[in-house]
UniProtKB/TrEMBL annotation:
Species of the source: Linnemannia elongata AG-77
Names of the cofactor(s): Zn(2+)
Localization per Swiss-Prot or TrEMBL: Secreted
Keywords, sorted A to Z: Carboxypeptidase, Disulfide bond, Hydrolase, Metal-binding, Metalloprotease, Protease, Secreted, Signal, Virulence, Zinc, Zymogen
SMART domains recorded: Zn_pept (SM00631)
CC terms in the record's Gene Ontology section: extracellular space
SUPFAM superfamilies attached to this UniProt entry: Protease propeptides/inhibitors (SSF54897), Zn-dependent exopeptidases (SSF53187)
Stated role: Extracellular metalloprotease that contributes to pathogenicity.
InterPro entries: CARBOXYPEPT_ZN_1 (IPR057246), M14A-like_propep (IPR036990), M14A_act_pep (IPR003146), Peptidase_M14 (IPR000834)
Region Disordered, residue ranges: 40-59, 234-256
The name this protein goes by in its record: Carboxypeptidase M14A
GO molecular function terms attached to this record: metallocarboxypeptidase activity; zinc ion binding
Amino acid sequence: MRLLTIPVALALSVLCTAYPQPLQQANNNVQGQQITFDSFRPQHHPASHNNANNDNSGYARFDDQQVLRVEVSSMEELKKLEATVEDKNLDLWSNLRIGTVDVRIPSSEIEAFKAAIPFPSTVMIPNLQDLVPDQAPALNIQAASSWNYTDDSFWKNYHDLSTLNNFTETMVQQFPDLVTRTSMGFTHEGREVFGMTIHGYKKRQEMEAMEELVEEVEELVEEASSWWSWMFGSSSSSSSSEPKELKKPSKPKKHPKAIVIHGGQHAREWIGPAVVSYIAKELILGYGNSKKITRLVDQFEFTIVPVLNVDGYAYTWEHNRMWRKNRQPTSIPFCPGIDPNRNWGYKFATGGSSANPCSDAYHGSEAFIAKEPKMIADYILKKENVVGYIDFHSYSQLWMTPFGADCSKIPKDDEDIMEAGMGAAKALKDVHGKKFAVGSVCKIIYQASGGSLDWTYAEGGVKYSYAVELRDTGRHGFLLPEDEILPSSEETFAGVLHLANFIRKREKQWGYWM
Ligand SMILES: [Zn+2]
């Protein structure tokens, strides 16, 4: 087995460039400041992708901020909560729905909020700042020396954008026959969005040459064995007749069907990019070692982009852990950022998104004006062969299907989409026991227009389109502890494998499958 480590010097230089001073020092700059809710409204920072010039203006703190879980029992209550959230520009942690909704509120505003929204509520996170330092960027530098993609140590920590990009580049370099670097385009701040396309075509050619050689040797052994039997009247060995793993491999196609997977549409949902990079790693290292993975990688092209909203993700590491949107300017100079997952072009701005540029759910001035959804949509249209799509988010543990914009409409493929989703959620649960609810965005959350899966299904022609909300169910919310990265990755990978296998078996009529 090959040992893959990022050169330590390179990795450290990447991190040092991004964080010229330890985080603790940066925090000291803002310690003691009275934090009010207003201070957490989106603030404009110079659009810079050269982090070396970061002036260490400070990483946002969240002292005395709480996450409150509100119980909503009717549509009337939901509308009231929606209006209050919009009016006070509160940070919704979970989606609006009848059921429970999580909202981040400064302690000082709790009483006023409860007066406006007198529904039953519980405090999920009493002091948000208590959870933030565990994921402080500087703490991860030490782990750099031990990154190793084969023993899972890389998935013991969250990683900044440079490190995740380094992971992708390393996969491309180390497995040139299996992995192709796939560029999606460039963001407002000039960062490249890129990922990996994983397919067994070239690698299989090499393996077939090797297998031919093995088969020749096996034939010789068989001949020798029958000669032995003829001479001495009994079989000396049964091993030569045992079936061989991978003896008759499926042949990859030059124009296979594709599955597109990405994380990080929403910047603060760090578990997404971590899980998505793990999925890539498992497909790559599993090829040739696992019969199931080998077959799937031979038959599908997996295009995997760990982080889509790279500007926003970088911003969560450098300025504000709670940033959700991208970093494009809006009509209000001090409220940058479009919610990429409200900006896709199917039934854009028809409900469940905000027209207020200062809102975290701002849908943008027109569909696809946000660069991130546009680049994925263009990629899918251009490829014409995409049959599966998963957009990873957090949190709530949901495996969601179309539609989100139009709640009176059911996809014509609903039965297959649901069956595949239920199977994926079951495969996921079988790993560590975590339950994921399955259903349309409309059914299990609430109306949300401009979301990715609606567009990929209705306009992109991707039959199996999903949005998945990963762990947890609210105990830590976006600040999922690092020791949950690996189990979350393992279970999610099982779900993805199930889904790909389901598509392979169900869609034989596409005439591609063997
Ligand atoms: Zn999200």
